[in-house]
Specification:
The protein has 247 residues and is mainly β. The protein folds into two domains: 93 residues, Rossmann fold (3-Layer(aba) Sandwich), CATH 3.40.50; 108 residues, no CATH class. Strands 1-2-3-4 form a four-stranded antiparallel β-sheet, with no helix packed on it. Strands 5-6-7 form a three-stranded antiparallel β-sheet, with no helix packed on it. It has a three-stranded mixed β-sheet with strand order 10-11-12, with no helix packed on it. The radius of gyration is 20 Å and the shape is globular.
Length: 247
């Protein structure tokens, strides 16, 4: 059997919520910020809300940025049992896992920066403060209670972490052999930080990886039509969101 090769499409990935989960910034790919599964708050009782806990996170603000909106995953299987975890991103390349019930900090993960600016490079400014700028995405796995965090650090590296404990799952280079993109401007270049080669889609038919990871699930229909020859030849796509399935 051929070795498993994975494809990462260069489009920002988005996730939809499962149950009362809030797995991506804004709740869905449209950034609607609408929690459709809310059943507790009503117009009659919302005025009775009260503060249950507060927590100070050791994150250094940069420019006008500090902490990003939390993501929420229910029923996460941890070493201490099932927990609802709120994951908060800090601009200083930090991720925090918080017990949503108690406010206890469960874990913190810091991404070491490997980026070294060239001489004369533009200094950090409001839009590029020198830290993580994209809220990560949480994706459910094929195992109930287990979730994977997909996060891009400031130096351009893509990271995979276990939501339960914040520990890295695997190195990106171990999971992804190369990146496929239709843009001829990008082909022949490399992704920053991870140094993955960007190649043309024809590479799939040439090498025929058994599986290709398609993270741009909101464009899956279009991409699957484009890659019909690869699929007819036996290639399959793993689509992790909004639910994990193989096509």
């Amino acid at each position: 059997m051929r070795s498993l090769k994975l494809l990462f499409l260069l489009t920002f990935i988005c996730g939809a919520g499962f149950g009362a989960d809030w797995l991506t910034d804004g709740g869905d790919s449209k950034r609607a910020a609408w929690q459709r599964d809310e059943t507790i708050f009503t117009k009659e009782n919302v005025s009775n809300m009260k503060l249950l806990w507060k927590l100070k996170l050791e994150n250094e603000p940069r420019q006008m940025h500090s902490l990003f909106p939390p993501l929420i995953a229910e029923r996460v299987q941890t070493s201490d049992g099932i927990k609802e975890i709120a994951m908060v991103t800090g601009v200083s390349d930090n991720l925090y896992g918080i017990d949503a019930k108690t406010g206890k900090l469960l874990w913190k993960h810091h991404f070491e920066n490997t980026y070294e600016p060239e001489e004369g490079a533009r200094p950090h400014y409001t839009l590029c403060p020198g830290g993580i700028m994209a809220t990560p995405v949480i994706g459910p796995t094929g195992t109930p209670g287990k979730y994977t965090i997909y996060a891009a650090s400031w130096d351009g590296r893509l990271h995979f972490l276990n939501l339960a404990d914040g520990k890295p799952i695997r190195n990106t280079r171990e999971l992804i052999d190369y990146v496929v993109d239709r843009s001829t401007v990008k082909q022949g270049k490399y992704t920053p930080g991870t140094n993955l080669e960007i190649v043309a889609p024809e590479r799939l038919l040439e090498e025929m990886p058994d599986y290709t990871l398609l993270l741009t699930w909101n464009f899956a229909g279009e991409i699957l039509r484009q890659q019909e020859p690869y699929r007819r030849a036996g290639g399959r796509f793993i689509v992790p969101l909004p639910h994990v399935h193989i096509v």
